[in-house]
Design brief:
Distance between the termini of chain A: 51 Å
Number of strands of chain B: 0
Number of domains of chain B: 1
Largest sheet of chain B: none
Number of helices of chain A: 7
Helix content of chain A: over 70%
CATH topology of chain B: Arc Repressor Mutant, subunit A
Structural class of chain A: mainly alpha
Oligomer: heterodimer
Shape of chain A: elongated
Number of helices of chain B: 8
Order of helices and strands of chain A: HHHHHHH
Distance between the termini of chain B: 44 Å
Chain lengths: 165, 189
């Protein structure tokens, strides 16, 4: 006679078998001393573990929780959605915008009187008005990014914290 | 609020409804607290982790996806991850947490069944033995015993929380029971 697999006995003990399976196990147990002993051992362990009863949580737990939660700083779902999409979208717009400006106005930009001083360097003539405009706009981009870096870092940290949840 | 389901309440929590959060806290406070307490054996730490669990429920309410599982599973997952992270720090002996070494006040035991000083002592000793055996189980086995036995979750729910196949989970549970039998020296109980 084959015995009840241990996992099925555990399911039976914790009431996780359906009615038909339970009946089958009960019928087997009625005729099998070894399986009855296995079940009894499981029940003994169960009763032993239940000796360790539940404890009461702290009385004013929710009040303490509310002190930890600044409700005004709640990050709502739509806001998170925007936070996740906005940087990539803005970057794409910035690239398209910068490329258009450089493509259309590179000669006018290079010819501006503000940049006369730069033309004394041979490298400026080598890279041409297109290269000069690209470097100029990239530099402006880097400076602007550096200026808002603290905000970006804060946002990154905030998002990392949310992802850890 | 009392008549609403967990999933309805978490939708309200997303809209910063503190009454909904309070109801969820009321429903799960005791279970989560005892789950953490039995896992780590430290009352103060359990209180802190309980608070941090619900802090995350509040701030991460929008991350809960009802189609991917129940709120119960989600909140236990948060509590479990927080506890695992905390216990994995080097100042806790993660792999062999001896719960019997902690102060009696930390793992407090109700004394409803204690009638005489003698039985009280015996009861306390038995509880200390069980706590120690539980603490000596490897964490990945201990958490299954706590979730299954003390929290009365179904294997399907535990598999969801631990993110392991149900078959693997049952095999681990069998191993945990076998280890406990050895640790408890079952014939003495």
């Amino acid at each position: 006679m084959s015995h009840i697999p241990q996992h099925q006995l555990i399911d039976f003990h914790y009431g996780e078998l359906n009615a038909a399976e339970s009946r089958e196990v009960r019928e087997h147990l009625a005729n099998c001393e070894a399986c009855r002993a296995d079940l009894a051992a499981l029940e003994t362990i169960g009763k032993t573990l239940y000796t360790l009863e539940d404890s009461s949580p702290p009385a004013n737990g929710f009040e303490q929780l509310m002190n930890r939660i600044p409700t005004s700083e709640m990050i709502s779902a739509p806001q998170i959605g925007r936070l996740q999409v906005a940087p990539y979208f803005l970057l794409l717009i910035a690239i398209i915008f910068s490329a258009s400006i450089i493509g259309i106005f590179h000669q006018n930009i290079a010819a501006l009187s503000y940049f006369e001083w730069f033309h004394q360097f041979a490298v400026v003539d080598k890279i041409g008005s297109l290269g000069f405009s690209a470097i100029l706009l990239s530099s402006i981009g880097v400076l602007l990014t550096a200026a808002i870096a603290p905000v970006l870092i804060l946002e990154m940290r905030q998002r990392r914290n949310i992802q850890r949840l | 609020m009392v008549n609403k389901s967990d999933e309805e309440l978490i939708v309200l929590v997303r809209r910063q409804n503190t009454a909904a959060l309070k109801e969820l806290y009321r429903r799960y406070e005791r279970r989560i607290f005892n789950f953490i307490l039995k896992y780590c054996g430290r009352r103060q730490l359990s209180q802190d982790l309980l608070q941090r669990t619900f802090e995350r429920v509040w701030f991460g309410a929008h991350l809960f996806a009802a189609d991917k599982g129940s709120f119960k599973g989600w909140v236990f997952t948060i509590a479990l991850n927080l506890t695992r992270n905390e216990m994995s720090r080097k100042y806790y002996r993660y792999h062999h947490q001896d719960l019997s070494e902690v102060d009696e006040q930390e793992v407090s035991f109700p004394s409803a069944n204690i009638h005489t000083p003698e039985t009280a002592v015996i009861q306390q000793e038995r509880k200390a033995l069980i706590a120690r055996a539980l603490g000596l189980l490897k964490p990945h086995l201990r958490e299954i015993i706590i979730l299954k036995h003390y929290q009365q979750l179904k294997f399907r729910e535990i598999a969801e929380i631990l993110d392991v196949p149900e078959g693997t989970l049952k095999a681990r549970f069998q191993k945990a029971i076998a280890d406990l039998k050895v640790l408890l020296n079952a014939e003495d109980f």
